[in-house]
Amino acid sequence: MTALSGIRILELASERISFAGKLMADMGAELILIEPPGGDACRAFPPFLDDEPGQNRSLYWWHYHTSKKGIVLDLDTDEDRKIFKKLIQTADILIEAEPRNRLDDLGIDYRELVGLKKDLVHVAMTTFGRSDPRSDLAATDLTILAGGGPPWSCGYDDHSLPPVRGSGNQAYHIGCHFAVMSALTAILHRELTGVGQFIDVNMHAAANVTTEAASYAWLVAGATVLRQTGRHASISPSMESQVVCADGRYANTGVPPRFPPEFRKLLDWLTELGLKDELPEAVFLEMGADWEGPFNLSLIGEDDKITAVFKSGRQALTLIASRIPAYDFFFGCQSVGLSVGVINSPEEAFEDQHFKERGYQVEVEHEDLARTFRYPGAPYRFEKTPWRISSRAPELGEHQEEVLAKLLE
Amino acid sequence: MSKALSAFRICDFTGQLAGAGATKWLASFGAEVIRIEDPVRQGRWDILRGNVPFVDDRRGIDFGGAFNNHNTDKLGITLNLRTDKGRQLLASLIKCSDVVTENFAKGVLERWGFGYEQLKEINPEVIYVSNCGFGHVGPYSGFRTWGPIVQAISGLTFTSALPGQVPAGWGYSYMDHTGGYYMVMAILMALIHRQRTGEGQWVDLATTEAALGLHGPTLLDWTVNGRASRQDSQPSSNRSQWPVMAPHGIYPCKGDDDWVAIACRDESDWQSLVTEIDEQWCSRDAFSSLDSRLGNQDDLDIQLGLWTSGLDKFDISQRLSAAGIPSSAVQKPEERIDKDPNTGSFGLWPTVRHTKMGEVRVDGQPVHFSETDWAMKRGAPCLGEHTQQVLTDLLGLSKGEVEELRREGIV
To answer: Does this model's pTM top 0.95?
Structure first.
């Protein structure tokens, strides 16, 4: 049993909406991906299998289209629009990120579709929403994020360096997360009432409300956060939190020790490593370990003793990090109860024992290549209705006959 | 009030953005979300409760601006779970709830006697969604995390950087937002399944795993081609990986910390940009094709940056957009919140009424539904604000009994 079994979704292929389809298809929805003749542009996106381009060799395509069935329709023709309209009558959800007026121009927008399928849930994703003409302007992941806020908060203490856009097409991911949350909310409502609806997803707005303090510091207090290296953008500068370890890798020391028992454990660890004598500030760490009564964090910067003790925690962590490899530092910090993490590259994270033991790596068969590949796995572990990649990404028009034959029955 | 989810009741232990952000979505669509908080520690398991930012000079457990932002339209009650009576009241609440949500470290609910096995005994159809950095299963399940640690572990910090620099990471808890989104999806999918079959379940959400899934093509390049993303020099994340584009970056402008993003998707975008710039360097052989621009990207970025640095970021982005080239100013909070014609007209910053803070603007939802749209009216609950209402209306206690519980320190 899967969570979304029996739910049929039509997806109009686009780099913007593909992740939303994958998220629901991997949870058991029947997803029919509709590509134009010649195939969707993403089939030409790198990276490629063995670095050789080819219609079915894009790993980008492979990732974003698991568990989907693929058909080809030329929606610019009457004939194929008729087929699309028949398909809509069998569908529960339509997801698309077409240009703002395209479906209306073709006579297949929600207004027309709801006449064919009265409880349809139509999710339309555009750069600025369906009612803003700015959605017609050219935009990419980079420009959507830049206008929407995330890069303002990301980068370095040195503000002569540009703000940074985190890679991986996160503007599309953010939009897709909201597209899926919306589709599921509407489906649940439809289960209870039989009523479908049209949903307007605004990618610019989605980025805007995915910026944490940058937005609410302004909304609440009229304050502007400023970017800092490797840590939260902030109204006033905070202490460095990224440390370099003996093997050259970085770790994020997150929340430093703040309570006497934490200072004690850190001091013990420092001593155990034989590093106590090398840290001139160890005296303050000892003071923190022996602290009696409440350690009032709000006095940092005002009370000299409290400030020195607090700083000594970070100083001790920086020293320890410089003497041991990043993973040892990560495990050591966690064993003394500190929320610290090693800065992995994606593949290092993927190969980490924790994710392996949780079964995060999954095998997907590519019977056309007579090979099996490891894919990223479940974003959540459902006890009764597990996430599962039911099939590799479709070849162009691979399920044309299967889908259309059933339709004409 | 939106009716999309009004049939559902959530017994909510979430805190911070990663958890509270999730149940905020449900509340904005009409679900009855009841926050359970500890009267002894004054709800401080959510560190945002009494924390910055503040609307004015008032301080205290009911004045945290971020807490208000993440907990709109929820009910708030206090229950002292150290006491038998407190635990009995919680059991009664779980019995009539559809979902129990939490983002504690693993084991916290179990220690109070409300692990998944106990939840099922109380309510056989219950949906339980736990949300923490490493999940409840696996070698690191006892480790502590918060947003930046989840991002460090999962590769998101690494993949946000400029060449020759240390990792920049995300300057905020991107995975608190995103972990919350996955929590919403998990809750809704579990509800859809239960609606159809009557079967509840546990969903173990590890936000590090949700984060790993945001690196799909990078991970396949590793598993299929054996190519690691960690190489001698860190690639610039402001450049495009897929599809390949050049120029593609964030460039300096006239003004204080003002920047503009420009992307040329293809040859036609580049030719349009050349026309706009109209300078000699554009016609160099080094920039004549995508391949040559990719090979000379450092030089290209320097040249383009020299051009942008004398101009206003909004002027450039409007000019380039009019010419069909993807471009946007890097907007500051004030610019995208108060001066952006889109977010304002979309209704993205609704004003809610908080019992003590008064009227405050909050993050809205970036979507609109034609039939059952979201709404945000009420600010976050003050500590125990709805204890009496919930205990009398829902659990059938009398006002006198609630007063007695208050005297005994149970609520």
So the answer is: yes
